[in-house]
Amino acid sequence: MKIIVAPDPAGVAVAAADIVTDVVRTEPAAVLGLATGSSPLGLYAQLAARVAAGLDMTAVRGFALDEYVGLAPHDPRSYAHVIRTTVTEPLRLHPRNVLVPNGIADDLPAACAGFEAAIAAAGGVDLQVLGIGRNGHLGFNEPMSPFDSRTRVATLTESTRRDNARFFDSPQDVPDRCVTQGLGTIMDARIALLIATGPAKADAVAAAVDGPVTRRCPASVLQRHGHAVLVVDEAAAAELR
Ligand code: F6R
What we know:
A 7-stranded parallel sheet has the order 1-10-9-6-2-3-5, with helices on one face. A 3-stranded antiparallel sheet has the order 4-8-7. The longest helix is centred in the N-terminal third of the chain and has 18 residues, at 9-26. The chain starts with a strand and ends in an 8-residue tail after the last strand. It has helices at residues 9-26, 41-52, 79-88, 108-121, 158-164, 183-187, 202-210; strands at residues 2-6, 31-34, 61-64, 66-68, 98-99, 127-130, 152-155, 177-180, 191-196, 228-233. The protein is an alpha/beta fold. Strand 2, helix 2 (41-52) and strand 3 form a beta-alpha-beta unit. Bound molecules: fructose -6-phosphate. Fructose -6-phosphate binds next to loops.
């Protein structure tokens, strides 16, 4: 795993944007995997600034990492909405080229299979943007998720629901189920770009990088990825050996 330590979140955003920019310059129709949450917001803002300055991302295709079950795409708390407002619109991607798992499908397993098929039809993910949960989750693959899992319905742990309550009016409103790309899906990406900032992520980052490869820390599976890059600030790197 390659590790880049930047002094602060702004430096993380620039370093991560440099990696994404390289991929897009090499392959204008690159396929990006797109995390939501706070961690990649600086990256997306940095890319938006580069797009405003002339970087062309109009041919880029995107697949979101996850979505809550039960939230419609127009719901401002849905990841479909977050992806639209922080990625699709500012980076000037074509909405038809950006797919978010459908959390309100009548047949969720069929929708998950369709999502996997769409990734395969696009030729696979060139670069997957990832954040990490304080419990080491990747996407919503909570501890003990199988390393070979594919896109599926999963249950959120109470700690993740608490962490994400800040995006909802009350903690009880956080859905307890989601659709998430599996760890196997994530590992198929040609580049895995994990972003972490702040002291709250230091333990999870250390477990993922220096700890054993174990289902207890889903992000530790990245130690087996041939091209994983971790971009962290000094606070998130504080516990690294
Ligand atoms: C988001 C996702 C999650 C987050 C993780 C960190 O699509 O799948 O794994 O990346 O929970 O969240 P933040 O970045 O908000 O700390």
